[in-house]
Amino acid sequence: MSKSPASAAPPPHAFEPEFIEGVREIFERRILFNALLGLQITSITPDQVTAQITMRPDLIGHYAHNRIHGGVISAGLDAMGGLAVMAAIGARHLDEPPLARLHRFGKLGTIDLRIDYLRPGVGERFELRAEVLRLGSRVASTRMGFHAADGKLLATGAAAYIVS
Length: 164
Hints:
The chain is α+β, with helices and mostly antiparallel strands.
């Protein structure tokens, strides 16, 4: 069975592998603080992004008892809000080639961040989720969640990002 040229294009709400790999390169490797935290993207769609952090013995020390620091939670949620904005910008400009969309992230920056800590971050692995509530021409608003491995919500976040 032969494929038609139309079947080679990604579905309208999915990203091309080149775009996803480009976002992964920026988020996981070029943003050095994300690399230090060990943030790893697990899913990226136009509507929601997810990632995980696995505790590293070389960073937590013997005294921490697998309790993740609030600063790591805050930084992780901020990074995830930015990642969600990247996905939303990428989805808004699907008519552009992947590389052109990746260049749009250069001016992205946090302008407001609120974190609510609900429970202690105890565990060895955590899942982070984020979505864009509104993507305007200058500002994007996001909502984020920091979850234990069992799915229990440990912290929530809301942020605004400059996009132009």
